[in-house]
Each structure stands twice: as structure tokens, then as C-alpha cells.
Specification:
mainly alpha, 2 helices, 48% helix
């Protein structure tokens, strides 16, 4: 399997993934903010807690419900970035050397440097 990705495509992919992550973060932040306001209004006076049995202070605002989904999303994004990084190739410019460029009309003599005896 030969996957080659240019530098431009890699940069665009990384920027796209970063924008996607920021969109998910802000979307979930807005979702939980709306849920916490609605839950606080509904549960205002009826909540009784015992610290020994409750995992969270407010059970109606369960932030651990989607933790598995976010873990899997993070793993998929990390593996995707690793695949992009390993398949990133840089192409070298082809150097054109004319055929007669290496033919010299006269021989170049080189003298070895003198050493002290």
C-alpha cells in the first residue's frame, strides 16, 4: 500500500482536524450549558444528596455519559494523524545537468598539501 501525502495536503488535514475538534468542544460546551440550566430549574428544590452514594454533585448533569465516545474519537484522530505523518512525502526537484557540463578541455592537477617532516 503506497500512500503519499504532500505537505499542503497534510497541513490542510491537520487544520481541518483542529477545526473539527474545536467545533465538537464548543458544541458540547453549549449542549451541557443548556442542559445544566434546564436541569437546575427542574431539580431546584427536590435534590437531596448523600456523599457516600453519589458519584457527582448533580446527577442530572452527567458529564461521564459521553466519556467513552470522546475517548474513541480521540484515539481515531490520533491514529489518523499518525498515518498522515508517516505517509507525508517530500518530492525533490529534478536537477538538469547538460551532457557536456562534466567534460573538461584541460586536466586539472591537484597538488597534495605539504606536511612538516
Amino acid at each position: 500500500m503506497n500512500i503519499s501525502v504532500t505537505g499542503t495536503a497534510l497541513a490542510l488535514a491537520v487544520i481541518g482536524i483542529a477545526v473539527l475538534i474545536l467545533a465538537v468542544i464548543f458544541g458540547m460546551k453549549m449542549l451541557y450549558a443548556n442542559r445544566s440550566k434546564a436541569g437546575a430549574e427542574q431539580q431546584k428544590g427536590s435534590y437531596k444528596s448523600s456523599l457516600a452514594t453519589d458519584r457527582t454533585k448533580y446527577p442530572w448533569a452527567n458529564v461521564f455519559r459521553h466519556s467513552g465516545t470522546f475517548l474513541r474519537l480521540g484515539i481515531v484522530l490520533a491514529v489518523g494523524l499518525i498515518i498522515l505523518a508517516f505517509s507525508w512525502t517530500q518530492y525533490e526537484e529534478e536537477i538538469f545537468i547538460p551532457e557536456d557540463a562534466l567534460v573538461f578541455e584541460e586536466e586539472i592537477e591537484m597538488e597534495p598539501p605539504r606536511t612538516a617532516e
